[in-house]
Amino acid sequence: MRVIAVDWSGRLTDEARAIWLAEACGNELVRLEAGRTRADVVDHVIDVAARDPDVVVGFDFSFSLPEWFLVERGYATVDELWDAAARDGEQWLRECAPPFWGRPGRRRPESPAHWRATEEAIAHHVPGVRPKSTFQIGGAGSVGTGSIRGFPELARLRRDGFAIWPFDEARTPCALEVWPRACTGVVVKSDPVARARLLDERFPHLDAEARAHAVGSEDAFDAAVTALVMSSRLDTPDRLHALGRPTHPQAVLEGWVWMP
Length: 260
What we know:
Nucleotidyltransferase, domain 5; 2 domains; alpha/beta
């Protein structure tokens, strides 16, 4: 089965430089490349699935927002959130009105909850590191901008036949939300020396060109390691199909991060 990991970007311009796509098969990294926009990446994986539907793609942005936000806005399903983001997302980003924050002068507000249930759960898996709130749309490590600009792309993937787990039963072709930290573990990802050390320890047979990309770019590193870890756990359609839906009730609206 083909396994692809995408290190996403919320940049308004020049996002193709920051978006990396990695494909792995077993313990081998088949490719590691940049140069596509968000729309290009989605076009590409749709084309891949049209030729070979046994593919699973991991995207490192939030697939939804906390349940209370959807309820408060009257979104009965995640599809309605994605549609709203396609229509109003750029306004959300521009205005940065509460509960969104992170733009200059927009400090984190008090709100019912800044994190989804899945983010609260996975915070215990990697000591000392926790996911950022999707409401944070500016500042170091923020994921909100990329998520809001990713929501409409999830709707497009679903229209083209992808299952979006866990909102759909796991089947190929499938898109999963991933958190690279769960795959890399504790490492100073901003340090090229630390990246090189982890790659050499865990993936010593990595192709020299792919290793150079992953050592030279934190984005490439995240994509490469995530693809390799995903491939080691989801190497056959049967193992993907065995991935049940989360039991937490909030996952119906909030989604859930796939964990290795």
